[in-house]
């Protein structure tokens, strides 16, 4: 279980998170919803320990993963030792490398060769578009295909906890659906997911539970189905 408790985070003098608490259980798909500037990216960066100067500074709170406080481990261990991966906003793929090369690079720290081959098949099974474009340079992929590649890379790194920052950003409604369907499939086959989203419609359709963040505070939480019916959520986030 990932348990964020009373997390306070600031950037210089700007307080971005005012003591947020939430949990993600093994096997769940949880959404963190909120408008621009609510603190969603800050939350993910704090969990992943993205370092200063760009990174946020945690001034109080804990991020407990299983029995470890992640705030006390070196950032690279969050991925390599604890098996939590991040698919950042903006994707961060290597544009001058091919699809296949991008996926292979993600496996550099793994030694389980047999499992790598299996995972590669799995990625191409989940994303047939990537299979068709194995040898294509990543910077010539469409936005949606790049997002798929970013998700594929996280999976190929061997992690089974994946945090995603606004995967639907800039995609057509059809592609958004496709991506969330794949996310759900990943989740149902053993990957725990925390997804940050502005698109509440989409996230509440696929997630088990959700939290709503407003200016650095969690203002609502509950099963996704219930939140989707909540009058306040409907008014503020579902239009
Ligand atoms: P968006 O959906 O627009 O990405 P968000 O919910 O992810 O928004 P954050 O990016 O976490 O929000 O920002 C939370 C607050 O922290 C905002 O007020 C933002 O201006 C501030 N902030 C974010 N990054 C920095 C930074 N590097 N330096 C100073 N303030 C920052």
From TrEMBL:
Signal peptide: none annotated. Pfam families: ABC_tran. PROSITE patterns: ABC_TRANSPORTER_1, ABC_TRANSPORTER_2. One of its GO terms (biological process) is L-amino acid transport. One of its GO terms (molecular function) is ATP hydrolysis activity. Residues 2-238 form the ABC transporter domain. Keywords: Amino-acid transport, ATP-binding, Nucleotide-binding, Transport. Belongs to the ABC transporter superfamily. This is Amino acid/amide ABC transporter ATP-binding protein 2 (HAAT family). The lineage of its organism: Bacteria, Pseudomonadati, Thermodesulfobacteriota, Syntrophobacteria, Syntrophobacterales.
């Amino acid at each position: 279980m990932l348990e964020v408790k009373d997390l306070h985070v600031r950037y210089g003098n700007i307080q971005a998170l005012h003591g947020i608490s939430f949990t993600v259980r093994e096997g769940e798909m949880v959404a963190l919803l909120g408008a621009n500037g609510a603190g969603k990216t800050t939350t993910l960066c704090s969990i992943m320990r993205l370092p200063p100067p760009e990174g946020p500074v945690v001034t109080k709170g804990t991020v407990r993963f299983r029995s470890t406080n992640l705030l006390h481990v070196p950032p690279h261990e969050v991925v390599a030792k604890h098996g939590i991966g991040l698919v950042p906003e903006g994707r961060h793929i290597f544009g001058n490398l091919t699809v296949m090369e991008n996926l292979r690079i993600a496996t550099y720290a793994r030694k389980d060769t047999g499992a790598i081959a299996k995972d590669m098949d799995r990625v191409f099974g989940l994303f047939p578009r990537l299979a068709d474009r194995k040898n294509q340079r990543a910077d010539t992929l469409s936005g949606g295909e790049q997002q798929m590649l970013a998700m594929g890379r996280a999976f190929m790194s061997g992690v089974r906890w994946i945090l995603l920052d606004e995967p639907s950003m800039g995609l057509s409604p059809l592609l958004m659906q496709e991506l969330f369907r794949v996310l759900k499939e990943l989740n149902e086959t053993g990957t725990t997911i925390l997804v940050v989203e502005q698109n509440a419609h989409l996230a509440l359709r696929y997630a088990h539970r959700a939290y709503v963040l407003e200016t650095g505070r969690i203002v609502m939480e509950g099963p996704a189905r219930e939140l989707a019916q909540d009058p306040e959520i409907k008014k503020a986030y579902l239009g």
